[in-house]
Amino acid sequence: MDDNAEAAIALQVKLERSASYVDRSLQLQTTEEHDVMEIDDISSDDTGSESDSDSSSGSESEKEEGRFFYPAPEALGTVKAPQVGMKFPTLEDAHEYYNTYALQTGFVVVRGRNYKRQRFQLDCNRNRKVKLVEDLNLKRKRKKNVIEKTNCQAKIIVKLIKGEWVIAAVQNEHNHPLSPSRSFTRFLTSQKHMSPEERSFSRVLQQSRVPPGEILKILRRMSAFFRELPSKEKQALILQSAEQWRKANLDVEKTLNHFEELQLQDPCFFYTVQKDEDGMLRSIFWTDARSRMDYEIFGDFVSFDTTFSTNRHNMPFVPITGMNNRGRTIVLGCALLQDRKAETYKWMLQTFLQEMGGGQMPKSVITSQDEAMSKAIAEVMPQARHRFCRWNGKAQEKMAAFVAARGNMKAELDILVDNSLTETEFEQGWSALIQRHDASENEYLQLLWEMRKIWAPVYFMQDFFPFVVSARGSQGAFSLFKENVLPKDKIENLIEKYEEMQDKIKKTDEEDALEAATEPSCFSLQPIERHASRVYTRQIFLKVQKELLHSTAFKVQEIERGALYRLDKASNYENPEYDRDSFEVSVESGVTDTYTCQCAKFARDGILCCHVFRLFTQFGIDEIPEKYIVARWTDGFREE
């Protein structure tokens, strides 16, 4: 073996050892959870957990950078002191700015008081009075050091003004010594002496939320491995290490390779990526020809679920779904994002509109609770009617203990939300419920009240959100992925589930097409039921058939001759959409009569309710009037 071959083998061994070290060093970092301020994470009750957390070694800033926050690479060393009037697109951006400033300056931020979701206070974590804490557990192997409280008044107050978060008050003076993170300071200093290749590698690690101190350890270890190499070979190996680490730890490269293979198998498969100024990948959006065609036909209603993320690096995974003419959930596309900021969501929404339908705008959009997503939709889809899903898991957690201590408050709250037919009824009922249970000081209930017009069903009675939120709070638009994907999952599993679901949807469509050639069963001899079976797709007919069946449970009372009728429930039935005993239906005479029910099912779902069907029986109407047949729910709609 010649000298060149031996040198090549030696270089490869060094590279493998270096990459292995990087992998081992970062294994704990890559699985760590990072703070994301969500719209429902506003309780001030948990701020003390950050303030009073213990530290066994290193400065408070070092602990903060490792556990709670890590700044964007471009922000390192460049953040200026806060000033009154500084503006931020979202509360998360304001929090990130102050966290970066704190890390750079030498203190730690905790969330302080907030007022009705319009004003937030961010404090130094020494702002409370001194607490005397003794560790009496003699069995512990190491003592805990308690962060000293000095009643420090350093803080900023941000207010929501005209859609932006503005710094309204600043107190920059601390009453205690500041201690910038030693590793952070060393990192800023070391950047001046890094080669371009080392900076590139450090940027890969920064974007993966590796703390500065750990980056320096990795670079020092790599430098020790490469000490005897010529400069050019050393830099080349650093770049190779960066590339090898990126492929091994982010899984994004594997995803892109898989997408390229899918494109070879199916030229209609499409994906696009977002990169930063250095050419590094930030986000991915993908879809296929079938989804594009479905959006062109059924793009009036779209849902975005932002509750999923990858188990490594906490990258948000966003399935985008809709509903076809059979009332079945369809996948329109997916996105894997760098973060949950408004600007990232804007890129996703703009890409979605551009690639799916040449800018075709949906009429109705439902999302999980996410302030940044709400802001992005307002900018990119201003004509769309946007709402949050009714409940989420965190909402239940926030209120569980509070309402459990107040008897039947939870049941009363559900009844109020499920059964209110008018805004006045809901708002008066809410006030009475809060007063009855002495709940006016509960922050989460205050937040729900302030945000009621973007989540409560009663405010969307006249908007087309088909079969999405039933009276029992089921979320049909989100159920497809929630039943098949973990809240935190591997990227490869997410892609695999996406492909499985697309195959399943295709197979179900084929089965539905075969079923359409058969005659459905009818429960009655009424002509209107036979007519409905011929008009609608099978799955929508089954929904209409249920309304026809439920109509037999009501009797009719005429309130105003030929104009207003009350439908009184004469017998109970399972799973009523609204658990109440009477409904009013108004009738406006014309060339074709117009029937308007309090429950507004036709506006919401595009099919008539049992109350109107009961009037049809009373009046001897044997066919559904054409004006009440929504073409979207018919077999011929896709072909048209």
Would you kindly provide a brief summary of this structure?
Keywords: Metal-binding, Nucleus, Zinc, Zinc-finger. This protein is an alpha+beta fold and 640 residues long.
Walk me through this protein's architecture.
This protein has 22 helices and 18 strands. The protein is α+β, with helices and mostly antiparallel strands and 640 residues long. Strands 6, 7, 8, 9, 10, 11, 12, 13 and 14 form a nine-stranded mixed beta sheet that branches. The protein has a five-stranded antiparallel beta sheet with strand order 1-5-4-3-2. It has a four-stranded antiparallel beta sheet with strand order 15-16-17-18, covered by helices on one side. Strand 2 and strand 3 (119-124) form a beta hairpin. This is Protein FAR1-RELATED SEQUENCE.
